[in-house]
Amino acid sequence: MTERTYDLLAMGRSSIDLYSNDEGSRFPEIRSFGAFVGGCPTNIVVGARRLGMRTALLTAVGDDPVGDFVLEFLAREAVETRYIVRKSGRRTSAVLLGIEPPDRFPLVFYRDGCADVEFGIDDVLAAPITDTRALLITGTGLSCEPCRSATLFAAERAADAGVEVFLDADFRPDQWHDPRAYGVAVRSSLRWLDVVIGTEAELSALAMRDDAEVVIEGARNSEPSVDGNLAAAIDLILGAGPHTVVVKRGAEGSMVHLSSGEVICAEPFDVEVKNVLGAGDAFAAGLIYGHLKGWDWERAASMGNATGAIVVTRQGCANFMPSECEALELFQSREA
């Protein structure tokens, strides 16, 4: 096989993330915020780059100073930015986040008319979809047009070229006009996917067709009320194209379900939680790193657990992803 330029190309949302500097304070009591970079695929591609992978990002930012902020951070991280487009008349998206350990991390999205929903099929045609080992798309990338068609087109094009296609479920109920539409849209992508990554609640939402209230509450709180739907969701996904479903279970580690029927468990790492936001994206970066290294799924998922465990001890997302040395040190402590 011809050597490809990139190990991972991710596509989807990017943002400026404003994290509360007042840890433990209720959101109305926050007095200041720290400015960082975020967005599910952006976090993952930065995490993968810090692990030593060759990465590129396909997103859109506004022709504004916030777009400069995002682009300059990514350039410093050595993520390839030439495929990031600037959309005139659109603003770069923003997210505000509170930090109330151990279990409250409220976040507010500012994405109305944002730039990263405006990339289209022409932007995909200009990107190296067939010149990467893996493509990562996200559920939120399917939430509206034109990015929905662009995301589906990218997945189709990658699959036709033998590029491994990952989906991070990335379910944000308030980004959909109807939470049931999330499942409809994501199910339409399954034929082109190889690996689906999500929490129990996200995977249940992916499969659910009618009970919007359960979908929303499960995704927000990861309540056990969605557990009864998980097995059916995994069966649905594996029956529609992907060969692997990875379930992120937070403090309980992760599980990998294969189309062969095998189920693989990866144990968690015991750490003190400061902020869970970004941990799932760090997990995906570590998992993809291990998988592209040729590791078996148990080791790859354990690497994902290690990268996620490091990030929950830190303040935020992309800016706080671990280096390869940091992640391997924790990962190898388990193997030793």
Please summarize what this structure is.
The chain has helices spanning 40-50, 65-76, 121-125, 147-160, 179-187, 200-207, 212-221, 227-239, 279-292, 297-311, 324-335, and strands at 6-11, 15-20, 33-38, 55-58, 60-62, 85-87, 93-97, 107-110, 132-138, 164-168, 195-199, 244-248, 254-258, 263-266. With 336 residues, it is α/β, with parallel strands linked by helices.
- The proportion of residues in beta strands is 15-25%
Form type: globular
- Structural category is alpha/beta
Low-confidence region ranges: 221-226
Number of domains: 1
Instruction: Determine the mean pLDDT.
Output: 93
CATH fold assignment: UDP-N-acetylmuramoyl-L-alanine:D-glutamate ligase
Distance between the termini: 35 Å
Determine the number of helices (DSSP H or I, runs of at least 4 residues).
11
SSE string = EEEHEEHEEEHEHEHEHHHEEEHHH
| Rg estimate, integer Å | 18 Å
**Number of DSSP-assigned strands:** 14
Instruction: Identify the strand order in the major beta sheet.
Output: 4-1-9-10-11-12-13-14
Biggest beta sheet summary: 8 strands, mixed
Share of residues in helices = 25-40%
- CATH 4th-level superfamily: Ribokinase
CATH class: Alpha Beta
CATH architecture grouping: 3-Layer(aba) Sandwich
